């Protein structure tokens, strides 16, 4: 155990529960537990947790001079080298607290950004993380004290290097503009790919959910994607898409997205819009919920709020209660678009596929057509805009079995000879 301490940064976690803070901004015992999990994900170790109750935050120290002194003594007693706050801190508060505590001070946003900097693997993901970090750090450049003077490698120092952060604001704004231009190019490439999928009539189904709800495990189980699925926060940062055969008549693109989390830094929502905009164009969302999560309802509310910002208002949503094998059936709500599954064990997946098909089949028609040979060009259109299942060249015309959407159904009604 001592060897583990030597290789990890040791942090005291601090939170403020103030009457004047919004419900989303306050710290609680549960949010401090989640902060500890975030710290472990970043590679650190929690030595102690302190939750302070005040009517209002202190403008200078956030938690008050007396509580700050208590934190300082706790840092010394536990030989910690960092204090991480569950709430958002202003640049001046970080500066004052670092002077009082004598260690690096981070807030929740900085810790999440550090994890993202570790986890981003693709060029797009790294661009998004760098953009989010610069936007977070720009207003904090003046007098960031201990954080910027530390030399390399620790939590909160990954991403843009020290020399970059000490350049003037104009240089950083120029870099932000360049990153935004590069991400705009990513969006354009995605738009081309999306138009191609639309042309080929391939519906897009996006997995969303609170971090560590089991989205990657579900994607692996359904598609055999082989994506690493570990029991840790933010295990997936880069969107992964795989084809899924829902049934013999329906193929979809299934996309895994980054997990949501309470108090997600708004810079991350902005920077990751190139990835999360998949939600805006999805035909169906599967909200993966950890059925055994003690904070389940609060986490559902977090995801619902972010989905409302990012997805089309009329996009259907399936609530998929994962890890259902860990709770009693009575603990899982029932309803039209709700399903209980175990992505790890495979239970309930047939029912999930039925719900996917039912939601995407609204307005879809499985028909048999007989196209006159002079109208043979309609066959090309069917290949482009529908799912053609069989073609037979008969003496009286071209017999086609296909699944068509409502527009094509209306336009080809005169050639329909049967429907299932």
Structure explained in plain terms:
Helix 2 links the parallel strand 1 and strand 2. The chain has 420 residues and is an alpha/beta fold. It has 17 helices and 14 strands. The strands form three sheets. A six-stranded mixed beta sheet has the order 6-7-5-8-9-10.
Question: Spans with pLDDT under 50 lasting ≥5 residues?
Answer: 1-6, 145-151
* Cα shape: elongated
**What is the helical fraction, as a range of percent?**
40-55%
Count of strand segments? 14
Arrangement of strands in the largest sheet: 6-7-5-8-9-10
Main β-sheet: number of strands, strand sense, barrel status? 6 strands, mixed
Strand content: 15-25%
Q: Please tell me the overall pLDDT.
A: 83
Number of helices: 17
């Amino acid at each position: 155990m001592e060897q583990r301490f030597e290789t990890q940064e040791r942090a005291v976690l601090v939170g403020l529960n103030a009457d004047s803070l919004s419900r989303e901004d306050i710290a609680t015992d549960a949010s401090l537990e989640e902060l500890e999990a975030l710290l472990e994900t970043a590679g650190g170790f929690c030595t102690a947790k302190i939750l302070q109750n005040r009517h209002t935050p202190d403008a200078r120290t956030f938690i008050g001079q007396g509580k700050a002194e208590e934190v300082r003594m706790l840092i010394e007693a536990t030989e910690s080298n960092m204090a991480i706050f569950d709430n958002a801190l202003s640049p001046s508060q970080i500066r004052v607290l670092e002077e009082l505590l004598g260690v690096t001070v981070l807030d929740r946003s900085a810790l999440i950004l550090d994890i993202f900097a570790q986890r981003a693997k693709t060029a797009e993901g790294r661009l998004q993380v760098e953009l989010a970090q610069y936007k977070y750090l720009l207003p904090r450049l003046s007098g960031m004290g201990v954080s910027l003077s530390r030399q390399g490698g620790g939590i909160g120092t990954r991403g843009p290097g020290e020399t970059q952060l000490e350049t003037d604001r104009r240089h950083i704004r120029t870099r932000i503009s360049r990153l935004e231009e590069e991400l705009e190019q990513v969006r354009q490439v995605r738009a081309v790919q999306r138009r191609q999928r639309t042309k080929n009539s391939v519906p897009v189904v996006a997995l969303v959910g609170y971090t560590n709800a089991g989205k990657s495990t579900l994607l692996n189980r359904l598609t055999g994607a082989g994506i690493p699925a570990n029991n840790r926060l933010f295990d997936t940062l880069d969107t992964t898409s795989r084809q899924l055969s829902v049934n013999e008549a329906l193929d979809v693109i299934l996309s895994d997205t980054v997990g949501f989390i309470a108090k997600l830094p708004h810079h991350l929502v902005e920077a990751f819009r190139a990835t999360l905009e998949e939600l805006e164009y999805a035909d169906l969302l599967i909200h993966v919920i950890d059925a055994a999560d003690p904070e389940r309802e609060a986490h559902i509310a977090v995801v619902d709020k972010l989905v409302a910002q990012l997805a089309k208002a009329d996009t259907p949503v399936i609530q998929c209660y994962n890890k259902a094998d860990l709770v009693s059936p009575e603990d899982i709500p029932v309803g039209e678009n709700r399903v209980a599954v175990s992505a790890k064990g495979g239970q309930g997946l047939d029912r999930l596929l039925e719900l996917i098909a039912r939601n995407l089949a609204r307005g879809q028609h499985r028909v048999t057509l007989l196209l006159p040979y002079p109208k043979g060009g309609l066959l090309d259109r069917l290949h482009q805009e529908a799912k053609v299942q069989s073609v037979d060249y008969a003496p009286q015309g071209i017999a086609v079995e296909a699944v068509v959407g409502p527009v094509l159904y209306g336009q080809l009604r005169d050639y329909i000879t049967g429907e299932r």
